Task: structure prediction
Amino acid sequence: MFGRLTRLWRNLVHRDRVERELDDEMRAIEALLVDEHRQAGMPAAEAVRRARLALAGVEPVKERVRDVRAGAEIETVTNDVRYAVRLLAANPGFTLVAVLSLGLGIGANSAMFAVANALVWRALPVTSPEELHLVRIDSRLPVPQRFSAPLVDDLRRGLPDPHVLAAMSRVTRARLRLDGGEPEAAAVQLVSADYFQVFGVSASTGRLLTPDDASAIGAAPVAVISHAFWRRRLASQPDVVGRELVVNGVRLTVVGVAAEGFAGAWLESPVDAWVPTTMQADLHYAQNFSAAADAEPDRPWTPQAGIQWLDVVIRTAAPAGREAAALNAAFRPHLLEAATRIEDETERRLAIDRRLALQPFAHGASNLRERFRAPMFVLMAMTLVLLSIACANTANLLLARATSRQREMAMRLSLGASRGRVVRQLLTESLILGTLAAALGLVLAPIASELLVRMTVGVQSGPLPFSVAVDWRVLVYTALVSLATSALFGVAPAWHATDVALADALRASARNIPRGGRGRLSRALVVLQVALSLLLVVAAGLFLRSLQNLQAAPLGLETTHVVSASINPVLGGYQPEEWMPLYERLVDAAEQLPGVRSASIAMCGLMANCRSSVGGLTISGYQSQPGEEVMLQENYVGPKYFDTVGMTLVEGRRFTERDRTHPESVAIINEAAARRYFANRSPIGQRYGEDRPTVEIVGVVRDARVNTVREAAVPMAFYPIEPAIVAGTLELRTSGDPRAVVAAIRKTISQTEPRLPVDRVSILADQADTTLRQDRLIARLTTLLGGMALALACLGLYGILSYRVRQRTAELGIRFALGASRPAVLLAVVRESLGLVLAGLALGVPLALGASRLASALLYEVSPAHPWTLASAVIVLLTVGAVAGAAPAWRAAHVDPMTALRNE
Amino acid sequence: MPRQRATLLQGTLDLLILKALATEERHGLGVSRRIEQMTHGAFTVQPGSLFPALHRLEEAGWLSSRWDASENNRRAKYYALTRTGRKQLGEETAQWQRIALAMSRALDA
Result:
């Protein structure tokens, strides 16, 4: 063993000495042989000749000796690498193009993978995340997936081990004050006392929540903060326990810091502070809930069975085991009890037909994941296509080089190198290119993936909601992709390069070796590039058109002259009886502003992710189907609301002053509601209500998209604002520049109502635009990918055409000498270019048609087989073909016959 | 490069080299000549096989080498058996004889 190591050392480190010795040995043997022959009486020259013949070439013998030496493998590899690096350095242009195009391709892939990894594959940083499950209600009807606090308690009591069940609210944006500083936004979540135990998260400082913290309503004003928040806002101070946080006006005491890395179960909403659910009323938490008719949302929620607002998480290794059975046993009485209040037989049976099911929760929850999954896979597929194009491009460059190196290959093969050995050398070059590209890709990937997440979530600066760091999965993926890439672009050229008829190659000049195979392969690669580019260009075209359609979609609102300010009277500490006067003061103050034509107030803002719906309605004269959810989205609006936001009244009347005294009794519905519930009759004067039809419809307004640009108008009802409603928005109609009003209204409110928090002030058009973030992102990215694909295809075409022109210089020279016209030659080259493009299009059009069908769910009012998009893409590629062919054609047309022939 | 004669089995060359060096140290050409002589010309070892084998056996620690003057005063690299090489020769000889015996019995049967 030791001896072998010293030899390895000698062979690798003192290579020169070993080589010299081998050389000496062979020389000595030759001399000995010569001596032998001379002694046999041979003439000197003949003796030398015989000796050399007997050795059959000193170099091959030496080569074989080298092969058996210790470390021969290592030496071969280092030699290959050294040689490859030298070659790549000698062709900086080629190396740069190859590494850049592959690096961009690999970087794009790794970035997409990093995002997908963070979004879809990375589990929560807790112990045994695979044991976590979300409790869901399985039902034939869509039902709200939320639980009331008393139901959660019953479920917990029914379990064999009650300490495996935790409940949590949604993550809410709260107003936080630290040390009497300026108020700032913080993400707060209400959780049950055993939340941390169930998730398996420990405290890094202080303690976590205990059952005492949930003993009574409002009894425990405590908070556990996240490690990230501790570091970001409290500079990781060790004496953090006992500090005071003022959240939504309530003083909370920090009792501990959760383990590093844990920020709750919502991927894109990292939690800053967790507070016991019993603090719900104190913190004015009121979102994502459904309330029964007899519920009182203004009173604390924890004792009320009629208010459903909690998500339930359970830790169990067997999701179909006895925990699930126990949960259902505890759930059943609640269902039966609720069913007794339903009169209709069918409805009752449907209401009982519900079960609790456990859904894996190892990855936590994420709206972004659900929304972005499809676009993400489309984008991943597109980056892979781009990488394939870059591959084909590099393969073509290598092929071109292989031809110019054919004499070198022939030389090496005839000097005794085996074909495998030479192929290995060439593959080493490919692998080095691939590695360089992977390195570039890994530099680009974190930048690109962070940018991608920022664009998706809409966070320009500050910390990312979740990390997209390059972890081992991304590294492995990148390594695999670059390996596969290197193999793809390297093998065929290497094989072709070594497929030489030795004598021919050595005899011929490098320029005119007749090699049909190579030409065919490289033309096929260009055709493939064109086809794949068409795919990406068509995709880009479709997504752009889809975005255009969305941007041009009629919203049914006045978007450019409406300014919305989101307000929160509850957080400002206004008591319910102060709300109506506040609304009036705000509207008055707003209407005083120059450039404001009218102002109004509403519960829900437009395009603001505020959606309140009421279901189980009885509508006079409307017979619902069994199981049909008769529901309306609702909004409470101030006077002049419809004129302010630009909704047109089409039938009936607006709200009047008189309606304010009986606010619950009148409603204005939209056309969608009229169409659905009053198909062949006028809704004016009709009544509806939750139990009895008490609300009279007095008007119908034109449909408007109030939730997102994409979502068509849903059946909707508007009511006059009333004293118990919290207005979330102040809407202003401007006559002049809305931007001036944006600044002015914030200033006015802070002067007249300093207590009132104003969150966001924006022009409605801009706000509507934010709901198109994802569509814009996809359109931009696909355009970028399409552009890169076109550039690569252009490069590929240019490469092969200039190569062909160079190859045919002599032929062209003869043709010119024989009187061929320059335009004819020029046309011939351009025709060849267009021929390749046409072949690519013939392959690409069916490909694009098939592939775009897969993305049709992401498109808005664009058929995947949109003829104009396809036609434009075809024209773009033909143009690229003409452009790529232009320079080589020009060169071909200006070949000087004399020079060309002299070169021969 | 033409291959060794088909009759030269895998591993046979190593044994022949070890045997050729059993009596005295020799240079590469000497080993080749000695093998021819021992086998009455049945095996001619080509340099392309001999030298890789010599280097391999040396790296395995069975041969040692040194530079010395040859019979007609040329410098040459001389190979000699090491202690492990001699042991290896004994083992391989025994092994070979067992095989040869078994083979001849089998063929006579």
Summary: The first helix of chain A runs from residue 2 to 13. Chain A has 27 helices and 24 strands. Residues 163 and 194 of chain A are 7 Å apart (CA to CA). The first strand of chain A starts at residue 132 and ends at 139.
